[in-house]
Amino acid sequence: MRLVTLISNDPSGGEKNTLSCFRNVFDPPICLKPRVNYSIALQSIGFDYNALGNLTHCPCLIRVKLKQLYAQVDGEKSCDTILHQFSLENNLSANNKFVHHSPEVKTFISLKQGSSLSELTVVLEDENEEQLNLGQGQPTFIVLELSSTMDHVDRDVVWHLSSLDECVYKRTNSANSFKISFPHDLARDIDHSRWEVALSSCILPAQLKIDDSLKVNDLWIRMTSVNYGINRIGVIQIGEAVNQGSIPTSTSTLLEKLCAEANRLNEERGNMLVRMSVETDNEGKKLVMESEGDLIVRIPTQLSSILFNENKPQSFHFSKRFEKRVVDYNFDMLRPHSVVIYCSAIAPQIYGGGKMKKVLAHVPILLGRDEKTQHYEYQPRHLQFIPLSTLLTDTIQFELHSVSGEMIRFENEHLGTYLTLILQKKRKKRKGRW
To answer: Which domains does the chain have, with CATH numbers?
Structure first.
């Protein structure tokens, strides 16, 4: 069995990839051996429901369609295959509206013997077979299970481990990256080429740190007055107005903090460079600046991307009054929605356009904003066994990343990460089998 992960931000698919329609090109192609029966099924899917925006019609059903799949369906070859469909309502998190679905019963689709998979395109559709209109948000991913017929014996070893375990690496271990010594009895007694491992459960710290691009220190506005012989400069630093360095939860709350801080600083200095406010009309919200004379306002890239969805610095020269439409969305859509657990002890799996990465599992993050929650526990619906690496060493490295590739960071990292792994022995390979 092999896991194949397809992600919407993979560069192999080109610039036309979107969150609801994306292509991954495999280099080299995935070759299927002749005279061996292969099949493929959906293991899990995750996408950002916030990216749907404000729709008059919300989809009730989500269809996962694969293109370029040379499959054997009802005796006929098909290039477009509906891999799976599921109810959207039953798979939504009430807190952050992220969809993470794993089928209760997997439906395997037989593939043509001796063919190869050079690329796959994923399309997400609604019940009317119309493509979902997903805007901005976290990357979409699907995990496919590619397997041939091979039986397994019962479970053999259950291994509980933690980033807080007493070991020689304890001082350098953290909740998102830690090393564990492989048990000596297992390292001595097992033939690595005949064993495989699966994640049975994991417990993570519940509070995530927000993405680096939203640090408080990066949220500022610089104003220059041109009414005087010497330019007078005022800098509005939102960090002074935000308690304990936390980030506001939406564009609206961020603007409220920004305007309040600008007006407070100007009153303290006795120099009304600008008066800032937020106005609402039928089209939404807009940022309004009013000054007593000519003013130059500069906004850095980080703040510009949040307020105006423009990934570049802004500079405005105006007199008396200036207004600009802002994008209003919840910052939760910028938070990681899944944890990808990497493990150095397993054989590499296909990840995106032919890249090989040692991905043990994808864990959905369905966390609320309740600060009383200390841990988040997850148990996969199905055990996905992955072969151990033949180059296994005495030390195993675990790392926790987002789908985009950034390292996951926790506010309460001292609580540690706990994993339960199951190791089992494979049967001897039959002739013509994996």
So the answer is: 1-149 (2.60.120.1100), 152-211+335-434 (2.60.120.1100), 214-331 (no CATH)
